[in-house]
């Protein structure tokens, strides 16, 4: 428990540093300057790299239990592709609720398989860590069963019915250069991801593209939300989820009140520990197979931003293709180095920090850690390479998509076009100081 708290406190400090940087990036107007370097040719491979980064996690984990992962993948494809036009009560149920409906059906199926003894450990102890099991056959079998069963987690027995999280619940945050610099760079990448989501959402709801001021305001607000998440010690920040653009497209629901109600329900549900414990019973193989679908959507959504450009241009094809390949190849090179034994990062960031003893070696250990870790992150490599190539290789504004992606001055001359972007009066009064971002 002490090691867990130590990790959370350092992660908490890094998130706070990254959030402050993002707040400054947004409300100072610096995001407006950064927008001059970020165009659709940059955003397309960067967002696609977000999804491609998890290709080594998806089916390798889902394939450990094909009897539940394959039916889920097939069911998702049936609902979203072959049954998407079937309408019930005036709604395309199978398209709108494809993920929760498919997961629910296969989840129940996996529960009955577990209860029926299909995933018994067969004499191999389930309470011993895999690394301590002597027999190779037992080690492999126990690991596979842990990915298939619905009762592996003991969260239901240990989770409290009601638990209200509070600020600094893991103790005061600790700050270290190596983790802080990683979170600062990640906050920039998250801002680029959000930029793409803002523009894609505006097209889906028939709005004019957001101006630089509106984009900067959104980035600043994401920084505030990340700061709150850091104080509460959630272990993650806050950003615009690219997958929600697909949800917006399929449900045709863009109401602010619907989103506010959904957010309120999520806050309420977070207080009840048993709800999280129930979700923890989803088998790992089942969760991995869902990622095979959802992260693939992110790749497609990222590449879809090329519609703002001349996609058939040889310039753009070379930049996007080279960026995608190198964003997978360079991190693969860095990740082949074994992480140091005293690694201070949570488990889901280990692939990115595997280069803590990597090839970049200077006199500063902290700088070595930061550079090696950053070059192990696919999306960081994609962003840097795409920005350099797109802004140094000659190309017309139409070819690069600048004329539609950047902030057209005509939008600012028409206040009515920006009316849907304005904050409610009760909230906007708190941001009157941020004149540089369009309030």
Explain what this protein looks like in three dimensions.
Helices cover 64% and strands 0% of the residues. Helix 1 crosses helix 10, helix 5 (66-82) packs parallel to helix 15 and helix 10 packs parallel to helix 18. Mean pLDDT is 81; it is low at 341-348. The protein contains 24 helices and no strands. The protein has one domain. The chain has 439 residues and is mainly α. The chain has helices spanning 2-27, 30-34, 40-52, 58-62, 66-82, 93-96, 98-115, 136-148, 155-158, 177-204, 212-232, 243-251, 256-271, 273-279, 284-304, 314-335, 350-353, 365-374, 378-392, 397-400, 402-405, 409-413, 415-418, 425-428. The longest helix has 28 residues, at 177-204.
Which residues form runs of ≥5 with pLDDT under 50?
A: 341-348
The helix/strand class is mainly alpha
**Helix content percent band:** 55-70%
Shape: globular
Question: How many whole angstroms does the radius of gyration measure?
Answer: 23 Å
Biggest sheet layout:
none
How many individual β-strands? 0
- The topology string of helices and strands comes to HHHHHHHHHHHHHHHHHHHHHHHH
Helix count from the secondary structure assignment: 24
Number of domains: 1
Keywords: Membrane, Transmembrane, Transmembrane helix
Protein name: Nucleobase-ascorbate transporter 11
Subcellular location: Membrane
GO molecular function: transmembrane transporter activity
Which secondary structure elements does this structure contain, and how are they paired or packed?
Blueprint: H1 2-27, H2 30-34, H3 40-52, H4 58-62, H5 66-82, H6 93-96, H7 98-115, H8 136-148, H9 155-158, H10 177-204, H11 212-232, H12 243-251, H13 256-271, H14 273-279, H15 284-304, H16 314-335, H17 350-353, H18 365-374, H19 378-392, H20 397-400, H21 402-405, H22 409-413, H23 415-418, H24 425-428
Helix pairs in contact: 1-10, 1-11, 3-10, 3-15, 3-16, 3-19, 5-7, 5-15, 10-11, 10-18, 16-19
């Amino acid at each position: 428990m002490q090691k867990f708290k130590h990790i959370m406190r350092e992660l908490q400090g890094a998130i706070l540093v990254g959030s402050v940087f993002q707040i400054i990036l947004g409300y100072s107007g610096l995001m407006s300057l950064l927008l001059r370097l970020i165009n659709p040719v940059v955003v397309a491979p960067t967002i696609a790299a977000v999804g491609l980064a998890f290709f080594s996690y998806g089916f390798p984990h889902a394939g450990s239990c094909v009897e539940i992962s394959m039916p889920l993948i097939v069911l998702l494809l049936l609902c979203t592709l072959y049954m998407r036009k079937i309408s019930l009560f005036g709604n395309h149920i199978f398209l709108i609720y494809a993920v929760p409906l498919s997961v629910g059906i296969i989840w129940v199926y996996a529960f009955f398989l577990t209860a029926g003894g299909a995933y018994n450990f067969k004499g191999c102890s389930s309470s011993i860590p895999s690394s301590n099991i002597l027999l190779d056959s037992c080690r492999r079998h126990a690991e596979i069963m842990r990915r298939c069963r619905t009762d592996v987690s003991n969260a239901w027995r240990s989770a409290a019915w009601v638990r209200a999280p509070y600020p600094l619940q893991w103790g005061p945050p600790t700050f270290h250069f190596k983790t802080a610099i990683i979170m600062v760079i990640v906050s920039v990448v998250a801002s680029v991801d959000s930029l793409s989501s803002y523009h894609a959402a505006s097209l889906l709801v028939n709005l004019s593209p957001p101006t630089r001021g509106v984009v900067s305001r959104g980035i600043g607000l994401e920084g505030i939300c990340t700061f709150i998440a850091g104080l509460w010690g959630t272990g993650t920040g806050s950003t615009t989820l690219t997958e929600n653009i697909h949800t917006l497209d399929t449900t045709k629901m863009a109401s602010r009140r619907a989103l506010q109600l959904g957010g309120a329900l999520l806050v309420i549900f977070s207080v009840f520990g048993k709800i999280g414990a129930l979700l923890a019973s989803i088998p790992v193989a089942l969760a991995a197979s869902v990622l095979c679908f959802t992260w693939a959507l992110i790749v497609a959504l990222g590449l879809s931003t090329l519609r703002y450009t001349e996609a058939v241009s040889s310039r753009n094809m070379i930049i996007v293709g080279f960026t995608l390949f190198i964003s997978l190849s360079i991190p693969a090179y860095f990740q082949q180095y074994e992480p140091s034994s005293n690694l201070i990062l949570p488990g889901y960031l280990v692939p990115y920090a595997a280069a803590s003893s990597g090839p970049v070696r200077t006199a500063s250990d902290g700088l070595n850690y930061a550079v090696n870790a950053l070059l192990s992150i696919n999306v960081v490599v994609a962003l840097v390479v795409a920005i350099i190539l797109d802004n140094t290789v000659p190309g017309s504004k139409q070819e690069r998509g600048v004329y539609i992606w950047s902030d057209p001055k005509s939008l600012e001359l028409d206040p009515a076009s920006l009316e849907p972007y304005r904050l409610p009066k009760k909230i906007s009064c708190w941001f009157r100081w941020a004149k540089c971002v369009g309030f």
